[in-house]
Amino acid sequence: SNMIKVAVVGGEGIGPEVTDQSHRILKWFSARRGVPVSLREAQYGLIPYLATGKVLPDDTVEAMEEADAILWGATGGPETTEVPAAARKAGSLLSLRSKYDLYANLRPIVASPALADSAPLKASVLKDVDFIIIRELTSGIYFGEPRGIETLPDGQRRGFNTQQYTTSQIRRVARTAFELARTRKGRVCSVDKANVLETSVLWREEVTALHQAEFSDVELTHLYVDNAAMQIVRAPSQFDVMVTCNIFGDILSDCAAMASGSLGMLPSVSLGPPDRLGRRKALYEPVHGSAPDIAGKGIANPLGSILSVAMMLRITLNRPDDAVLLEKAVDAALAGGARTADIAEPGARKLSTQEMGDAVLNAL
Amino acid sequence: SNMIKVAVVGGEGIGPEVTDQSHRILKWFSARRGVPVSLREAQYGLIPYLATGKVLPDDTVEAMEEADAILWGATGGPETTEVPAAARKAGSLLSLRSKYDLYANLRPIVASPALADSAPLKASVLKDVDFIIIRELTSGIYFGEPRGIETLPDGQRRGFNTQQYTTSQIRRVARTAFELARTRKGRVCSVDKANVLETSVLWREEVTALHQAEFSDVELTHLYVDNAAMQIVRAPSQFDVMVTCNIFGDILSDCAAMASGSLGMLPSVSLGPPDRLGRRKALYEPVHGSAPDIAGKGIANPLGSILSVAMMLRITLNRPDDAVLLEKAVDAALAGGARTADIAEPGARKLSTQEMGDAVLNAL
Ligand SMILES: CC(C)[C@H](C(=O)O)[C@@H](O)C(=O)O
Ligand SMILES: CC(C)[C@H](C(=O)O)[C@@H](O)C(=O)O
Questions:
Q1: Is the dihedral of CA B63, B69, B74, B78 positive or negative?
Q2: What is the mean predicted confidence (pLDDT) over B79-96?
Q3: pTM of the entire structure?
Q4: Yes or no: is domain A120-148+157-260 CATH 3.40.718.10?
C-alpha cells in the first residue's frame, strides 16, 4: 500500500503531553489534507517496565520495526530511579539510534520573529537565522571502544573513552549535508578540531574529498569547534548547513538553541541509511528532554514536537507544501500571541500545552 | 631576591602588537607602584626559526624556565606555512602547556557595561555576568594515547583519539576551582557528560568526593556539557566558577566569549602545580589567537593582553589592589568611549592598538 507507517511513542516526562498535540496535528493532516499515514501508538518507559520488565516492550519494538517514521516524545533520564539502570540501558535512546543506524541527526535552528523579545540574543543578531545542524549520531566518542574505568597499580582510577570515525561513517553523514545544502542555500560548514585531533584531521580530509568528487557545486568551509560555538552566538545568520561529529553536535545544537528563542521550539529528525528507493527510516523528536520538573502539569511547549511533524511532512511524507502550511500555522499562532510558559514575556497570559495545540490547529 | 621574574614573549601575528601594550602597562606598575618585577623579553616563532631552526630558541626556553610568570602573546597557527610542521610542533603552545604542567587554565568572563551595545547578547542577559571557567589543560582528549589514523583491512581509514582522566588529574584541577570559589561567591559548577562518557562518570565522582572531603562549605552543582552551553548563552549571570575538562573548556570558553562583548577582551592564565610556598608557574595570555588577517596593522584590541596583566597582578604578584586599579582603568577607558575596531559601534572612531594602550595608561 502507499500508506506511510508512523509509530507514535510519547515516552516519559512531558513526552506524552507534547506528543498528544503533535499527534492531533498529524491526524488533522491525514483527515483534512489526505496525507496517507497509518498511525500506531506504542508505549515506552516506566509504565511498560512495571507491566513487562522492559522499558521498550515487544509490542513497541514491533511498531518501531515496521514504521517508516517514529514520532518520539522523550525519555526519563537518570532521575527516574524506579527503573534499574540495566533495563533502562537496554531500551535507551542511544541503543535505538544504534539499532536503526540513525546516523544523521538534523536540527534546524530558525529564529521566530515573534519570539525575538523573549530570546537572550538581540533581534538584530537573530535576523535571518535559518540553518540546520547535522550531527553524526551513531559513532564518535558516544560509541567508541575501548571505554571504561580502571584501577591503576598505584590505586588511582583512570577513566577512558575512544573518539573514533571511519571513512564511510564520515562520508555518509557529509553526503546528507551536501544533498541537503543543494535544496537550501548551497553552503556547508564542516566543524572539527583538526588542529588537535587525528579524528578531526581524517574528518576534514574525507569531507573535502567527497566535496571535490561529487559536490563541488556546494560551497564548503571548515571551522574549529571552539570558533563555531562563538560564531553561532555572534552571528548565527551566516550558516546554512553545519555538519559535525556526535559530541560536537550535541554541544553546538544546544548552544544554537538560544538563537531560536527557546529549546522548547526545536524539532529534530534522525535518519538512517537510504534504501534502494532513497527512503530512510526516521525518528522525529523535539530537541528538549523529558523535563521531569514540569511533567504532568500540562504546561510544556508542544511546538518542538509539532514542528517535528512539519519535518516529517517534508522528509518522510514528501509533502513540502503541507510542511510549509504547518510551519506558517505555528508562526501565525505565535504572531497572534500564543505563548506557553517557557516563551512568555513576564505578565503575559500563558497557554497550556493543549491550548497551544488548539492555537496551531485554529491557524491551520 | 624578592623580584618576580616575568618572561615577555609576544610571539606571532598580532601577539607582539598587543603584548607591547601590556608590557608598557606592566612597566608602569613596576615604576609607579613599585611592583617588584624583573622583565625579560624573548622571541618566539618564524623570526627565531629562520635564525636558529627553532620556533622556541634556547634563549627563550631559558627565559621561560627561570620565569615565575610568562606574558605570552599568540602563536601563528596552521596558516604560517613557512615553518615546517615538525619544527612548529616541537615548540607549540600544547607542548609548553605540557612541559610546564600548566593544568589549570582560568578564563574569566566579565561583561563590561560599556560594551553591552555592541554585544550579541541583550543587556538584560549580560547584567551581573562575572564568572570564571577553569579548563583542565594538560590531559583529556588533547593528550590521550593511543591516537592516530590507521588503514583498515578493507582499505578504509579510521581516526581515533583517547579521552582520559585519572583521579589525581581530576582532583587537582577541581581543587583549584574550589579554592578560587572560596575567594569569590562560593559556588562551583562542574561540567561533564556523565550520562554518556565513563571519563565523565569518574570526573563527577572525584569532584564530588573532593568536595565532601575538603570543600563542603562551597556549593557544588553539576551540569551536562550540552545544557551548560545553553545556560551560558541563556543566563550567564548564574555562574561563579565553572570547572571542566580540556575539550569541553575549549568550546565553552569560546561560547562564553560573547557574554563579554568580544573575544579581544578576554584574558587568561594557565597555572602549574603549587610549590612548597604555594607559588605556581603561570602563563598569562589573551584568549584570542594570532589573527593573521589583521597582524601588522596596529588595529588589534590589546585589552585581552592588558587584562591578563591584571590577572598577573592578582595571582603571581599578589597585588590585588593593583589588579583592581588596572581593571578600573580599563573600565574607565571603555566608559570614556575608547574602542578598537572589534568593539566599535558603526561610525564610531576606532583607536589603534597603541592608542588603546594610551587610553588605559591615561586612566591609571
Ligand atoms: C540524553 C543524551 C544521551 C542525549 C545525547 O547526548 O545525545 C541528548 O543530550 C540529545 O542531544 O539527544
Ligand atoms: C590553538 C588551539 C590548539 C588551542 C586549544 O584548543 O587549546 C586554542 O583554541 C585555545 O583555546 O587555546
A1: positive
A2: 81
A3: 0.96
A4: yes
